[in-house]
């Protein structure tokens, strides 16, 4: 879809860094890895620190399928439970009413949404926002719920900004990244819809956001129940996956939350034409496509300092 938005000042404003106050939802496959738990806690804590200037309006469970789930729907259900577990560790049970179950399957095509409480809630919520004051959606899993909301209510494309950690860098030889390859149809819907998108690619960009056991021990051990849970779960999963004590682990999902921070300390980006994800796990490019904001560099040390300081609070 060629949507000429290069000269639309409101669209370009939505692609700029947000100015507080803003409203945010998080769409997350929380049980898939450990980095989603960090991102969820980071966002909740940032909202607390903002004293009402950053309001959390929803936490939606996204589907996933790997060795930790028997189906996309099972992955979504486990993520739903994990969101509630993390909120309990943070003593934020007051946020549980915001937690929504998402899609039980991935899109079967680019026309039909997967109906779910998340897709309906997002579509309805976004209708209450405007081109001047959009809803921000931080998505850190397969983007099925967001694509389904767009297909349910296409008019929300001018009322939302989607910050998605998905795909690989545009120069990478493929785009067989977990979040994108699970639901290429959903990625094509979102990138082709004309909605304001901020893309944080995995390999080649946020893959540098690695941490280690000693670093986590130093910054998190004994700070609170949540920090101990994050540390112990990360260490157990990393040892299982890497099999060596000198493991490091990518905690890349926090970068999507970090983009909301209202300065340029933590990452660098630019506008470029919206890519076209292909079903063979490669991008195509059309210079006439509407722009997205593309993050090409993350300042790992500065972002991790902000993350650890925030989680210790």
Query: Span between N and C termini?
Result: 45 Å
**How are the strands of the largest sheet arranged?**
3-2-1-4-5-6-12-9
Largest sheet: 8 strands, mixed
Count helical runs. 11
Shape: globular
- Give me the strand/helix succession: HEHEHEHEHEHHEEHHEHEEEEH
Mean pLDDT: 96
**Strand coverage percent:** 15-25%
Coarse structural class: alpha/beta
The count of β-strands is: 12
Task: Identify low-pLDDT runs.
Answer: none
Rg on CA atoms, Å: 18 Å
Helical fraction equals 25-40%
SSE layout and pairing:
Layout: H1 9-14, E1 22-28, H2 35-49, E2 54-61, H3 72-89, E3 99-100, H4 117-126, E4 135-139, H5 144-152, E5 160-165, H6 178-182, H7 184-193, E6 196-200, E7 210-212, H8 213-220, H9 225-242, E8 248-250, H10 254-258, E9 267-273, E10 276-277, E11 283-284, E12 291-298, H11 300-312
Parallel strand pairs: 1-2, 1-4, 2-3, 4-5, 5-6, 6-12
Antiparallel strand pairs: 7-8, 9-12, 10-11
Helix pairs in contact: 4-5, 5-7, 8-9
């Amino acid at each position: 879809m060629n949507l000429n938005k290069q000269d639309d000042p409101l669209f370009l404003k939505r692609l700029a860094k947000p100015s507080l106050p803003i409203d945010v939802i998080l769409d997350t496959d929380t049980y898939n890895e450990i980095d989603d738990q960090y991102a969820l806690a980071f966002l909740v804590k940032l909202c607390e620190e903002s004293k009402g200037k950053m309001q959390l309006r929803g936490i939606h469970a996204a589907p996933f399928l790997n060795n930790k789930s028997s189906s996309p729907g099972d992955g979504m259900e486990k993520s739903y439970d994990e969101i509630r577990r993390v909120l309990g560790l943070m003593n934020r049970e007051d946020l549980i009413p915001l937690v929504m179950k998402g899609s039980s399957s991935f899109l079967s095509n680019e026309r039909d949404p997967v109906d779910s409480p998340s897709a309906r809630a997002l579509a309805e919520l976004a209708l209450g926002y405007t081109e001047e004051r959009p809803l921000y959606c931080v998505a850190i899993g397969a983007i099925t719920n967001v694509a389904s909301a767009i297909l349910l209510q296409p008019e929300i494309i001018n009322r939302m900004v989607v910050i998605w950690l998905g795909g690989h860098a545009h120069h990478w030889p493929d785009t067989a990244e977990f979040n994108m390859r699970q639901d290429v149809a959903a990625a094509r819907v979102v990138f082709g819809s004309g909605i304001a998108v901020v893309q944080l690619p995995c390999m080649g960009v946020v893959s540098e956001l690695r941490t280690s056991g000693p670093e986590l021990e130093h910054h998190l051990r004994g700070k609170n129940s949540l920090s101990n849970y994050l540390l112990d779960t990360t260490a157990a999963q990393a040892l299982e996956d890497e099999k060596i004590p000198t493991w490091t682990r990518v905690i890349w999902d926090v970068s999507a939350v970090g983009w909301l921070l209202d300065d340029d300390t933590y990452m660098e980006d630019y506008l470029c034409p919206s890519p076209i994800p292909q079903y063979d796990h490669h991008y195509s490019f059309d210079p006439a496509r509407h722009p997205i904001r593309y993050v090409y560099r993350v300042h790992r040390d500065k972002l991790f300092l902000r993350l650890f300081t925030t989680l210790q609070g």
